[in-house]
TrEMBL record:
GO terms for molecular function: DNA binding. Residues 78-151 form the HTH CENPB-type domain. Keywords: DNA-binding. It comes from the Eukaryota. The lineage of its organism: Eukaryota, Fungi, Fungi incertae sedis, Mucoromycota, Glomeromycotina. This is Tigger transposable element-derived protein 6-like. SMART domains: CENPB. It comes from Rhizophagus clarus. One of its GO terms (cellular component) is nucleus. InterPro entries: CenT-Element_Derived, DDE_SF_endonuclease_dom, Homeodomain-like_sf, HTH_CenpB_DNA-bd_dom.
C-alpha cells in the first residue's frame, strides 16, 4: 500500500508588529489562563490569512522581551525579519557623533555623516574597500536612529523669561486633554553616591588621601498627583560590577544601565521610552510626558515651536506623548526642578548617614567597605519611595502649569510656602541624624567635617551628559565591548552566594522576629508572604536532600 504523504504545512510570515501584539495579548491579566492554542486561534480569527499554530506562539513568547521592546511603527508592520547592522561599532559611534553635534547646536548634513562613517570605519580597522556607505545606507541609518532632518534654527528654541506666563498657558492647554493621573514629568540628576571619610572615622585623616567621588546618573519620573512614581533608572560606570555578579537584575529596585561616563545617552533614553510605552499600552492608558530637550533625550530633528508634534511622529510611541520643555524654562516650569529631586536627595542623605552610623557601630572599616552600586540603588529606591505625595503635588502646583491652576499667583504662592516647609522637614531629618552621628565615641572633627562636605556635594548640580570628542567616542565604544567585570570597578569584593540552607535559616529567624513584634508598622497580614517562601525553600531543601540520598544508592561496581 503506497504511503500517503502528509499535508504540507503552510509557512506563514508573521510581522514584528503581530509578534508584539501576541506578546501584549498573552501578558494581560485577563488572558493569563489561556492556553497557547487559544492565543493562536484568537490571532488567526483576527488576521484572516494567517495560519499560526501553537508551536509558533510558543517560540514568539519565548522571545517576549525582544518583541515587547520594539516600538510599533508603520515599518514594523511590514517587517518580517530583523537584520543586524553590518558594522555595529560604526553605527554606534556615528549615532553618538550626531548626538554630540546636536548638543553643540551644530548643523549636520548627509555628506558629513558619510565622511564621518568612513572616519570611524578606519579607526575601527575596517578596510575601506569592504565598505560602501551608499545613499540607501544613509537613509536606513537615519531611520534606525530617528534622524529626519538637520536644520539649524539658532535661538528659536530658547524662550526668554518674560514669556514664562505665555509658556505656562500653552502647557495648561496641552495638559487639559489628560487627567492628572496620566500627566508625568521625568528628569535626571547626577549623584555622588558614596564618599566615605578618609579613615575609619575614629582616627585622623591620612595626608594625601582623597574623598571618593564615584557618581551615578538617576532618572526619576512621577505623575502629577504622586500616585505613581516609576521605577528609578540608574546609570553606572561599569556594566558588570562585582556586587551584581550572579544577581538576578530583574530583582533590583532600579533599572540599571552603564557606560564608562555614567551619563544619559540617546540609546538608554530611547529604551526607557519603549519601556514606558509598553507599560502604559498594557494598562490601556495614554499618558503625557514632560521632559527637557537635552540632546540625550532625542535626536532633535526640528528646533521650533512644532517640536512636540514632529518629534512624537519620529519617536513612534503609541501610548506616550512626549512634550519637550524649552531650555531656559525648566527651572520654572518643570516639577522635578521645583523641589522633587531636592527632597529625594535629602532623603538619600539620611540613608547614607544611617549607613555610616551602622558601619561604625559594627566596627567596619569604612575605607575598604564603601557603599557599592547595588547598595546605592537600594538607597535610591528607598529614598524615591519615601518622597511624600504632598511634596510631589506641591511641586506641580508650584510650577503653575496644571489646567486647574488659577491665573493669579495665590495658588503658586501657597504651594511655595508648603514646599518650603516640606524642605525644612527633610533637612531636619538630616540634621537629626548628623547629631546622632556626632555623638558617637571617637568621632573626630575632621571626620564630621568630611561628612558635611559630602552632604553639600550631593546637592550640587552635576552634568548628566556631556559632548564627546571623536577620540572619546571611539574609546567609549571599545571600553564597553571589552569590559571585564574585574576592570573599571572600584566596588569591594563580590558577595558570596548564599546557600539555600543559610537562606532558609535566616528567613526562619526573620519570621520569628516578625511574629514577636507588637508595633503597628509590622502588619501581621503580610507575614503570609514570608511563610510562603519558607514553604518553598523547605520543599526545595527536602527535594535536594532526597535526590542526594537516591543517588547514593547507585554505588559503582568496582567499589
Amino acid at each position: 500500500m503506497p504511503v500517503v504523504p502528509s499535508a504540507k504545512r503552510t509557512r506563514t510570515a508573521i510581522s514584528e508588529d503581530i509578534k508584539q501584539q501576541i506578546c501584549v495579548y498573552a501578558t494581560k491579566p485577563e488572558n493569563k489562563n489561556k492556553t497557547q492554542q487559544q492565543v493562536a486561534d484568537y490571532f488567526n480569527q483576527q488576521n484572516p490569512g494567517l495560519h499560526i499554530d501553537r508551536s509558533t506562539i510558543s517560540k514568539i513568547l519565548g522571545k517576549k522581551a525582544k518583541w515587547l521592546a520594539l516600538v510599533s511603527t508603520s515599518a514594523s508592520k511590514k517587517t518580517f525579519r530583523h537584520r543586524e547592522v553590518k558594522y555595529p561599532q560604526v553605527e554606534k559611534a556615528l549615532g553618538l557623533w550626531v548626538e554630540n553635534a546636536n548638543a553643540n547646536n551644530l548643523p549636520v548634513s548627509e555628506i558629513m555623516i558619510k565622511e564621518k562613517a568612513f572616519y570611524f570605519a578606519q579607526e575601527f580597522n575596517i578596510p575601506r574597500e569592504n565598505i560602501l556607505f551608499s545613499n540607501g545606507w544613509i537613509e536606513k541609518f537615519k531611520r534606525r536612529n530617528n534622524i529626519r532632518c538637520y536644520r539649524l534654527y539658532g535661538e528659536a528654541n530658547s524662550a526668554p523669561l518674560e514669556t514664562l506666563f505665555e509658556e505656562r498657558r500653552k502647557l495648561q492647554i496641552i495638559l487639559q486633554d489628560y487627567i492628572l493621573d496620566n500627566i508625568f514629568n521625568a528628569d535626571e540628576t547626577g549623584l555622588f553616591f558614596r564618599m566615605a571619610p578618609n579613615q575609619t572615622l575614629a582616627s585622623a585623616p591620612t595626608p594625601g588621601t582623597k574623598l571618593d567621588k564615584t557618581r551615578i546618573t538617576v532618572l526619576l519620573a512621577t505623575n502629577a498627583i504622586g500616585t505613581q512614581k516609576l521605577k528609578p533608572l540608574v546609570i553606572g560606570s561599569s556594566k558588570n560590577p562585582r556586587c551584581l555578579h550572579r544577581v538576578n537584575r530583574n530583582s533590583l529596585p532600579c533599572t540599571y544601565h552603564a557606560n564608562s561616563k555614567a551619563w544619559m545617552r540617546n540609546d538608554i533614553f530611547g529604551e526607557w521610552l519603549e519601556y514606558m510605552n509598553n507599560k502604559f499600552r498594557a494598562q490601556n492608558r495614554k499618558i503625557l510626558l514632560l521632559i527637557d530637550n537635552a540632546s540625550s533625550h532625542f535626536n532633535p530633528d526640528e528646533h521650533n515651536n512644532q517640536i512636540t508634534e514632529h518629534t512624537n511622529d519620529s519617536l513612534n510611541l503609541s501610548h506616550v506623548r512626549v512634550h519637550f520643555l524649552f531650555p531656559n524654562t525648566t527651572a520654572h516650569l518643570q516639577p522635578m526642578d521645583a523641589g522633587i529631586i531636592k527632597s529625594f536627595k535629602a532623603i538619600y542623605k539620611q540613608h547614607y548617614i544611617r549607613h555610616i552610623i551602622h558601619q561604625f557601630e559594627a566596627n567596619v572599616d569604612l575605607k575598604s567597605n564603601k557603599i557599592n552600586v547595588k547598595e546605592a540603588m537600594e538607597y535610591v529606591a528607598q529614598a524615591w519611595d519615601s518622597v511624600k505625595v504632598e511634596t510631589i503635588v506641591n511641586c506641580w502646583q508650584k510650577t503653575g502649569i496644571l489646567p486647574n491652576n488659577s491665573d493669579d499667583d495665590n495658588g503658586i504662592q501657597q504651594a511655595l510656602i508648603a514646599q518650603e516647609m516640606a524642605n525644612q522637614e527633610d533637612q531636619g531629618g538630616v540634621e537629626l541624624l548628623l547629631q546622632q552621628f556626632s555623638s558617637l565615641e571617637n568621632i573626630s572633627d575632621e571626620s564630621l567635617g568630611e561628612i558635611n562636605q559630602y552632604l553639600e556635594i550631593i546637592d550640587l548640580t552635576i552634568p548628566t551628559e556631556q559632548p564627546l570628542t571623536d577620540a572619546e567616542i571611539i574609546q567609549l565604544i571599545l571600553e564597553e565591548e571589552n569590559e571585564n567585570p574585574e576592570i573599571n570597578d572600584n566596588d569591594k569584593e563580590e558577595h558570596l552566594v548564599i546557600s539555600m540552607q543559610k537562606g532558609f535559616n535566616s528567613l526562619k529567624t526573620w519570621v520569628q522576629y516578625f511574629e514577636e513584634q507588637e508595633s503597628e508598622e509590622f502588619d501581621m497580614k503580610e507575614i503570609k508572604i514570608f511563610r510562603k517562601y519558607m514553604g518553598v525553600m523547605h520543599r526545595k531543601l527536602f527535594e535536594s536532600k532526597t535526590q542526594k540520598n537516591i543517588t547514593s544508592f547507585f554505588i559503582p561496581d568496582n567499589m
